[in-house]
Amino acid sequence: MNLTLVRYALTIFASLVCTSIYAVEIQVLSSGGFAQACKELAPKFQEQTGNILILTRGLSNGTSNDAIPMRLERGEDIDVVLMTGGSLDDLMTQGKLLAGSKVLLANSLIACAVKQGKPKPNISTAAKLKDALIEVKTMAYSNGASGEYIKNGLMTRLGIKDQMANKLKLTAIPVGEVIASGGSEIGCQQLSELKEIKGIEIIGLLPQELQLVTPLFGAIVARSKVPTQAKELLTFLSSPSNAHVLAGTGLTPVLQSN
Prior knowledge:
Largest sheet: 6 strands, mixed
Shape: elongated
Strand order of the largest sheet: 2-1-3-10-4-11
Distance between the termini: 58 Å
Radius of gyration: 21 Å
């Protein structure tokens, strides 16, 4: 009996040693849209594989220090990027991402929010959204993909670009934080980015006829030293078994968007 227990203990010990030896760190750089979903799924992935995820955030585009293209240009130690499709394709063309590693993860939609406890205007139609925005004194938007659309595309389509010119407030911090602090009456950003902010109330999504659907993708950085484990992560993040987690963070899982 004692010998059996000893053998069992040695087997468990050997298994733990092997896991420790072969476990790797995977450096993951995500845009805001997928960041919360990745954070919530990280413990499950780490438990299943023994590998450790090091998570950081950055903008999908732009020239700021934390923008994903700039961080790759500087040669930072990154294995996987999670970001919007257009910017990812540009990086793939430049050879910074591993050819053929692009994986569709989810779709992201834009929503609007106000400070918690404040009246929530009706934005259910294009006409009502237009009226609501004309009434506010300030509106916050981000310098990411959704912000570019809000400033130029949405305002133009509503016919109020000139009227809103002095009301729009570009922010480098999350839109929800600006609203929560009282820095803006209303703000619009990707739903998945608003949902993680305390002190705000989400009014709803942009009307369907004005909505911008942003596909979010993942890819392996060409310089990654752990491409096999990076591919395993992308397969995990896009797995149908994790769709409910993505939905819970405000994303639209791919299988549910078709």
